[in-house]
UniProtKB/TrEMBL annotation:
HTH gntR-type domain segment(s): 22-90
PROSITE patterns named among the record's database cross-references: HTH_GNTR
InterPro entries tied to this protein: Bact_HTH_transcr_reg (IPR050679), Tscrpt_reg_HTH_GntR (IPR000524), WH-like_DNA-bd_sf (IPR036388), WH_DNA-bd_sf (IPR036390)
Record-annotated membrane-spanning stretches: none
Claim: Cytoplasm is one of the keywords in the record: no
Keyword Metal-binding listed: no
Protein name (Swiss-Prot/TrEMBL): GntR family transcriptional regulator
Pfam families given in the database record: GntR
UniProt-listed PANTHER family: MANNOSYL-D-GLYCERATE TRANSPORT/METABOLISM SYSTEM REPRESSOR MNGR-RELATED, MANNOSYL-D-GLYCERATE TRANSPORT_METABOLISM SYSTEM REPRESSOR MNGR-RELATED
CDD domains: WHTH_GntR (cd07377)
Length: 310
């Protein structure tokens, strides 16, 4: 069940409202509007079948039908007999509901892959976390749960020739083994990510796949994920002290490093108001990414062919 729906359902007592059709309908409406507002159901997405929604909310199917009729009358969805309801637009209060809200990378990447065209721009330290989520989406595609027509990924990671301030040995800052380990990890996960998407194309799962990775002479102080220039997931790296196991010697050292997988991420989305905080943030971050991509970054290696052979 989708997170936004789950959170709401958990906080509403089924016993206190199940016998009141009006309240049950409003409960379904509020949860679905919230899911459309935060991008869980973006424009073009399909809502779950009525039977599934009724089961999720613990209400009668006719309650779900009435709620969908309201959303249809509001112009938010299109319902057709015998087919899933299609989301036509984002709920107006999306900016207010999503501004500053903590989101997970899993939900962000999952929504991106549910669209016919997947467009992602990423700025990160190693791509370790992203690789895990991309592989998960690849499994969904192979299983037939998703069927994107195009996948375009641009990613920037630090140049290996750049001396980074972290990770670094606390006892001996001149010891470069921690950074050598970081570069090896980056190469490993970048390679894994490329292979995963390349295999989708070669296996006829996705007709068009383009993956480009570039190196930039900058130390990432934050991670940034952009989807279609419309949504952004942003999180600063927090400096910590932790033990690092050096692969070559199995020696454990105390090092200054940053939080990666556990970094807190905030979600921002563009809306109809170009001057809103969400719109301004996404636009400025996309402009920043594009400027680095074209002016400062260099290709990590030759990109793969983008189309399937005929």
């Amino acid at each position: 069940m989708l997170d936004s729906v789950k959170r709401y359902v958990r906080h509403v007592s089924e016993d206190s409202h199940a016998g009141v059709p009006g309240r049950a309908q409003e409960r379904v409406l509020k949860a679905l509007r919230s899911a459309m507002a935060d991008g869980t159901y973006p424009p073009g997405a399909h809502l779950p079948p009525q039977r599934e929604l009724a089961s999720r909310f613990g209400v009668a199917r006719d309650t779900v039908q009435r709620a969908l009729k309201v959303l249809s009358d509001e112009g938010l969805i299109e319902s057709r007999q015998g087919s899933a309801s299609t989301v036509l637009g984002r709920v107006e209060q999306a900016t207010a509901d999503t501004r500053g809200r903590t989101h997970t990378l899993a939900s962000f990447i999952g929504r991106a892959f549910e669209r016919p065209e997947v467009v992602l721009d990423v700025y990160t330290l190693t791509s370790e976390t992203l690789d895990a989520h991309i592989r998960l989406q690849a499994e969904r595609i192979r299983a037939g749960d998703l069927s994107p027509e195009r996948i375009t990924l641009r990613m920037m990671v630090p140049d290996e020739e750049l001396e980074l301030p972290y990770p670094r040995s606390k006892a001996n800052p001149a010891d470069g083994r921690a950074q050598s380990r970081l570069h090896r990890i980056t190469r490993e996960y970048v390679g894994s990510l490329k292979r995963t998407l390349h295999d989708l194309r070669e296996g006829d799962c996705v007709p068009f796949v383009e993956v480009r990775v570039r190196r930039v002479p900058l130390t990432p102080t934050f991670k940034l994920y952009l989807a279609r220039g419309e949504e952004a997931l942003f999180g600063p790296y927090t400096l910590i002290e932790r033990s690092i196991l050096l692969d070559d010697t199995d020696e454990e050292i105390e090092a200054l490093d940053v939080l990666g997988i556990d970094a807190t991420l905030t979600y921002h989305v563009k809306d109809r108001d170009e001057a809103s905080p969400g719109s301004s943030f996404v636009r400025s971050q996309q402009e920043w990414f594009d400027s680095l991509w074209t002016q400062l970054a260099r290709d990590d290696e030759v990109r793969q062919p983008s189309r399937l052979p005929h």
